[in-house]
Amino acid sequence: MNLGTTTAIDSATLIQQMIGLGETRQLEFKRVSGKMVGKALETVCAFANTDGGTLVLGLADLKEFKGDARMFGIEENPEAVDELQRKLLTEFVPAIDTIRLHRLPCKLLNGPAKGQTGHLLLVQVGRTSNVHSIINGSTFTRLDAGNRSMSAGESTDLSYRRGVRSASSEPVPVALDRLKTDAWRRFAEARGPLSGTFSDQLLRIGLAEEVNGVIQPRRAAVLLFADEPGSLLASLDTRKSQAKYGLHQTEWRQF
């Protein structure tokens, strides 16, 4: 994540272009209030999961203020800006590596620093080939002028479209206890302390997902940790094939 500063001349031109704009699919404006950080993370996540975009911090939404009165600057709450810059590096799974930050010097025309020289902050987010989520949060997509939390099914569909969903990432109906092996314990020790239940730990590191209310491991987790993953998955695949082609009438249950 790079942080650059635009010259005053370039900034003045760019700000004049932005001052009359409202929010769009690829443009959003926010003052840096106390609640800004969480909402900004949602917007960055949504931009990365759609077509990219720019979040302008320090410039109020056109629906709240008009013209030069939108110019509050990031000096209105510098602590929140610092927090956001830290969380842009730590709060996404997987990490978003297409974020670029640019400071625009400007004269502030509203807020506690009115009349002083300050800055706007452009958070530019490029489209990525992954599907990103907020840690302990949701996966977001961008609408015409806002964000929306995606359902699990929508996230899966997007993963397939972007080519990041593969057989190894598919959930499989294998009992989680089958993965509490020496291989898992060695992995956990090497990784460091993991909090929560075993299912919580697998979910947090992306090796499980919830399917119809049940936590199922991904195929990759079975390959990594099960004692005999080949035979276990082969048996599972055989049963799935039988169900697909109607070779038996009884339901197969979780192993």
What does this structure look like?
The protein has 255 residues and is an alpha+beta fold. The protein folds into 2 domains: 2-149, Schlafen, AAA domain (Methyltransferase, Cobalt-precorrin-4 Transmethylase, Domain 2, 2-Layer Sandwich); 167-236, no CATH class. Helices cover 35% and strands 19% of the residues. It contains 8 helices and 11 strands. It has helices at residues 8-18, 36-49, 78-90, 152-162, 182-191, 198-204, 219-225, 229-244, and strands spanning 2-5, 27-30, 53-57, 92-93, 99-107, 117-125, 133-134, 140-142, 147-149, 208-211, 214-217. A 5-stranded mixed sheet has the order 1-5-6-3-2, sandwiched between helices. A two-stranded antiparallel ribbon has the order 4-7. A hairpin with a 4-residue loop joins strand 8 (140-142) and strand 9. The longest helix is centred in the C-terminal third of the chain and has 16 residues, at 229-244. It is elongated. The two termini are 44 Å apart.
What is the domain total for the residues? 2
Looking at CATH, which topology of the largest domain would you report? Methyltransferase, Cobalt-precorrin-4 Transmethylase, Domain 2
Strand arrangement across the biggest beta sheet: 1-5-6-3-2
Number of discrete helical segments: 8
Q: Based on DSSP secondary structure assignment, what is the total number of beta strands?
A: 11
- Give the helices and strands as they follow along the chain: EHEHEHEEEEEEHHHEEHH
Main sheet record: 5 strands, mixed
The shape is: elongated
Name of the CATH class of the largest domain: Alpha Beta
CATH superfamily of the largest domain: Schlafen, AAA domain
Helix content estimate: 25-40%
Rounded mean pLDDT score? 84
| Unreliable spans | 241-255
Q: Compute the gyration radius: what is it?
A: 23 Å
Q: So, CATH architecture of the largest domain?
A: 2-Layer Sandwich
Q: Give the oligomeric state of the chains in this entry, treating copies of one chain as homo and distinct chains as hetero.
A: single chain
Termini gap = 44 Å
